[in-house]
Amino acid sequence: MEGIIKKYREFLPIKDDSKIITLNEGNTPLIRTSRLRDYINRGIDLYLKYEGLNPSGSFKDRGMTVAISKALEEGSKAVICASTGNTSASAAAYAAKGGLKAYVLIPKGKIALGKLSQAMMHGAVVIQLDGNFDEALKIVRDVSGKRPITMVNSLNPYRIEGQKTAAFEICDQLGSVPTFHSLPVGNAGNITAYWKGFKEYKSCGRISSLPKMIGFQAEGAAPIVRGKIIKAPETVATAIRIGNPASWKQAEAARDESGGTIDMVSDEEIINAYQLIARYEGIFCEPASAASVAGVIKLNKEGYFKKGDSIVCTLTGHGLKDPESAIKISGEPITLPPEVDKILEILEL
Ligand code: F0G
User: Fold this and answer.
1) E runs forming strands in the chain
2) How far away, in angstroms, is 341 Cα from ligand 1 center?
3) CB-ligand 1 contact for 154 (6 Å cutoff)
4) Is 287 in the pocket of ligand 1 (CB under 6 A)?
5) 58 CB under 6 A from ligand 1?
6) DSSP designation for 232
7) Band of residue 15 on the pLDDT scale cut at 50, 70, 90
8) Would you say the pTM of this structure is higher than 0.70?
9) Which of 62, 118, 248, 253 could bridge to 162 as Cys pair (CB 3.0-4.6 Å)?
């Protein structure tokens, strides 16, 4: 199937087929863990939804195919977004495919290198701000009200519409509904979208129960957990370095309606999970994505899960987005002269 619009057409507000812009996003693997599950708790069933395998390397593509298609349907010529990196990469790619001009505002020095390279390669106008994501988003909201330009942040409802299809896919792949669904929370659009998706699938009878939504912010960027705006958010997980999420209220609603929780994890817990996912499951995700697994590890220690619970963690972005973080925590490679004996010495076999 070509992309999420064709696959889930009846759930999406697309009117004009000729304006559909797709890069064949979606249909990402839902991977059942073994070694990671054994490490955390042998009594649970743990799955990873590997959204890093979308065309631009993150879940944003699901929302962007709908947002860009609708922008074209509505006659827009240009799009704009604020971003911690992935939204800018995705917007730039889909705008390129659709022949639209893209402007992206990013916090200077605080986005992973891979994401910056994507936005630049796809020809977006990249504007770096001496400020954070929250400040960039405020400017984008102002500017899009003053000029004929479509905002493609998740405040654009079509982004949420597209992203909800990940919830559909998980139910289709699993053949059932997980007990818990775990996500990293930044601007809080994705947890809002998943919850909408699960609820819609239930109301049309495709599933008969709903998962509990569990979301995780980074400790230095945890406005929802702390109940107040964080003016200077900080975390190694730059994708979720956000102090005033646009969908704050909707994230709380997802938490409360589902009977789940929104908690926080430290940078150390994020990095630990990031490494475990790579080393136990062979899956490379970016640090922010690992917050979903870090959160499960944290809650498991508190006895939150029961035997037989199934948990799906969304791995929101690909590890290659942020090679600098990976290299930084992995230490130096071994350097040797090109001699067999030297290699044999280090084989430990
Ligand atoms: N994980 C990754 C890899 C992200 O890029 C983001 C958000 C999130 C999780 C959180 O999702 O914002 O819907 O709660 N990235 C946005 C961006 C903010 O600009 O790329 P959210």
Assistant:
1) 30-32, 45-50, 78-82, 101-107, 125-129, 150-151, 180-184, 212-218, 261-265, 310-315
2) 48
3) yes
4) no
5) yes
6) S
7) very high
8) yes
9) 62
Contact criterion met (CB below 8 Å) for 149 and 125: no
Instruction: Check pocket membership of 235 for ligand 1, CB cut-off 6 A.
Output: no
Round to whole Å and give the CA distance between 80 and 102: 6
SS3 46: strand
- Rounded to the nearest angstrom, the distance between the alpha carbon of 85 and the centre of ligand 1 is 8
Detail the DSSP E strand segments found in 191-274: 212-218, 261-265
Closest to 154 (Cα-Cα) out of 214, 82, 98: 82
- How many CA within 13 A on the CB side of residue 344? 3
Q: What is the pLDDT of residues 209-236, one digit of tens each?
A: 999 999 999 999 999 999 999 999 999 9
Question: How far apart are alpha carbons 159 and 170 in whole angstroms?
Answer: 18
Q: How many CA atoms lie within 13 A of 255 on its CB side?
A: 18
Residue closest by Cα to atom 12 of ligand 1: 187
CA of 334 to the centre of ligand 1 (A): 35
Residue 264, both tokens: 């926080």
Whether the pLDDT of residue 349 is over 90: the answer is no
For residue 86, the CA-to-ligand 1 centroid distance in Å is: 7
Ligand 1 centroid to Cα of residue 243, in Å, is: 13
> Which numbered atom of ligand 1 lies nearest the CA of 87?
20
The letter for the amino acid at 273 is A
Q: Which two tokens stand for residue 208?
A: 């008969």
Spell out the residues 6+ positions from residue 81 whose beta carbon is closer than 8 angstroms to its own.
87, 88, 91, 102, 103, 104, 105, 140, 151, 152, 153
Rounded Cα–Cα distance for residues 20 and 69 (Å): 5
Task: Indicate the residue type of 269.
Answer: E
Residue 1: the pLDDT is: 63
